[in-house]
Amino acid sequence: MDQRNFYIETYGCQMNVSDTEIVNSILMEEGMEPVNEPEDAEVIFVNTCSIRENAEERVWNRLKEFKALKRKRDGDMTVGVLGCMAERIRDQIMEKEELVDLVVGPDAYRDLPKLLADVGDGQKAVNTLLSLEETYADIKPVRRNDNGVSAFVTIMRGCDNMCAFCVVPFTRGRERSRDAESIIDELQQLSDQGYKEVTLLGQNVNSYDDGDNSFADLMYKASQVNPEMRIRFSSPHPKDFPEELLEIISEQPNLCNYIHIPAQSGNNDVLERMRRPYTREQYLDLVEKMRDIIPGVTLSTDIIAGFCDETEEEHEDTLSLMAKVRYDLAYMFAYSERGRTLAQRKHEDNVPEDVKKRRLSEIIEQQMDIQEELNQKEIGRRHLVLVEGTSKRSDEQLCGRTDTNKMVVFDRQDHIEKGDYVEVTITDCTSATLMGDVIKKSSIQEFEQEAIAV
Fold first, then answer.
1. Which of 129, 239, 280, 415 is least surrounded by CB atoms within 10 angstroms?
2. Fold of the domain built from segment(s) 5-127
3. Number of Cβ within a 10 Å radius of residue 197
4. Residue pair 187/198 in contact by the 8 Å Cβ criterion
5. Where in the numbering of this chain does the Radical SAM core domain appear (predicted)?
6. Residue 160 and residue 18: Cα distance in Å, rounded?
7. What three-state secondary structure class fits 167?
């Protein structure tokens, strides 16, 4: 392959970010060079997301812009679509306005060099075959756009849950797990490179199983790589959350006291239509168990407003669940029908758009009030904050996250650098951010010992 510059624009979830890092590695191994702007690239990839309609719409608009750029350069440019959208609507992508030259699904990235060669020979190139084995475990990701402090590591691919609203099983295939040894090796490399926080990624991390290790086993092994490197994970499923994992999080200081636990709805009939195999009561029992075993744990969730046939009473049940749990953070969306899903085949998307928007607004408004109340209670407390870099609002301030995943902003000090742990007293807040004063530089172990002493 001729050496060419390439640019990747990534949309969607953390898994897509991780996939982009794998593609970086594959292309750079072939002698290609990454660039930071599409105007400088001979090959442009859009790594796509299919989870909601507006995500796909953004991609279509971007592809039209790249088509215009290609026309300016007399066609001397290759445009490709990667990821979930490539898998879901590959035929439409190839046909629509001749926007792209190649389409590559999430399990076919190893085939990119050959597909680019085919395009160079004047062909359109497509590989969207899903795999039962591919985990990219042997490929060392190339991280170009992170902060050098926090990283993502994919531990498994695909999903077997078949939730009615979700397209992931159709775009990413069946579940398969990386072997634990390759994951621990990658964590060790990240630790050696100075990373201080890693998030383990999977569509349902509770289902992780490499034949020898459960997810609880993997989390314990991850905690032993470096006691000064924080470990997070996303996302678990409420249906099979092991108590053993909660005990391990409670016992290991570098396993973060923050759990993302998607509820989607607070009503049992809606959960059944969604094919979420738990009830409201079981979910609340799990939340109670989490808080009993991990004192001070913070929780976040996913919520869908206006799923098929949702009534006002069912919507009120979601509001009441959120008020009862009191999440520290929530990702909230109006239902967006996706092709090939069970919901599209079996249910009618019959909640009017204006009703969806109104219900979503009510959910967001209540959640923001709860977040502000919870953050107000943080004032006066001490937290260990991992410094991620300069605050977006001011070069005179730094920002970082607590163990419980709350963003903290504080005044810059000469002796504090990105990647340091600092002990901070919280002095003020908004619904999204805490403000604080630095007490001193510290470490996970030092902060833990002080907490025990108190």
1. 415
2. Rossmann fold (3.40.50)
3. 21
4. yes
5. 145-373
6. 20
7. coil
Please indicate if the annotation marks 256 as binding a ligand. no
User: How far apart are alpha carbons 9 and 88 in whole angstroms?
Assistant: 18
Q: Is there a binding annotation on residue 429?
A: no
Q: How many CA atoms lie within 13 A of 172 on its CB side?
A: 28
Is there a binding annotation on residue 399?
no
Contact between residue 376 and residue 434 where contact means Cβ atoms under 8 Å apart:
no
Question: For residue 73, how many C-alpha atoms fall within 13 Å in the half-sphere facing its CB?
Answer: 16
Cβ contacts of 138 within 8 Å, gap of 6 or more: 182
**HSE-CB for 368 with a 13 A CA cutoff:** 7
Query: Among candidates 161, 301, 323, which has minimal Cα distance to 239?
Result: 161
Residue with tokens 């002990």: 423
Establish whether 49 is an annotated binding residue: yes
CB 46, CB 59: distance < 8 Å = yes
Residue 357's contacts (CB-CB under 8 Å, 6 or more residues apart) are 334
426 to each of 254, 408, 429, how far by Cα in Å?
21, 8, 8
Q: Is 159 annotated as a binding residue?
A: yes
Task: Please tell me the predicted confidence (pLDDT) of residue 371.
Answer: 97
Q: Find the mean pLDDT for residues 278-282.
A: 98
Taking CA atoms, 262 is separated from 235, 238, 454, in Å, by 8, 7, 34
Fold agreement (5-127, 150-372): no
Other Cβ atoms closer than 10 A to 138: 7
In a 10 Å sphere around its CB, with 0-12 CB exposed, 13-18 middle and 19+ buried, how is residue 323 labelled?
Answer: middle
Q: How far is CA 190 from CA 8, 193, 198, 222, in A?
A: 22, 5, 8, 12
User: Domains of the chain: which residue ranges?
Assistant: 5-127, 150-372, 379-453
Task: State the CATH class of domain 150-372.
Answer: alpha beta
Token couple for 400: 């970082």
The pLDDT of residue 1 is above 50: no
Q: Flag whether 163 is marked binding.
A: yes
Residue type, 200: L
pTM, two decimals, is 0.91
The whole-chain average pLDDT of the chain stands at 94
pLDDT of residue 2: 52
Instruction: Look at residues 337, 237, 309 and name the one whose alpha carbon lies nearest to residue 277.
Output: 237
Bond from prior residue into 191 cis (ω within 30 degrees of 0): no
List, in order, residues 6 or more apart from 308 with CB less than 8 Å away: 273, 335, 343, 347, 348, 349, 350, 351
Q: How far apart are CA 272 and CA 376, in angstroms?
A: 36
**CA-based nearest residue to 106, from 204, 231, 165, 22:** 22
Which uninterrupted H or E stretch holds 168? Answer: helix 168-172
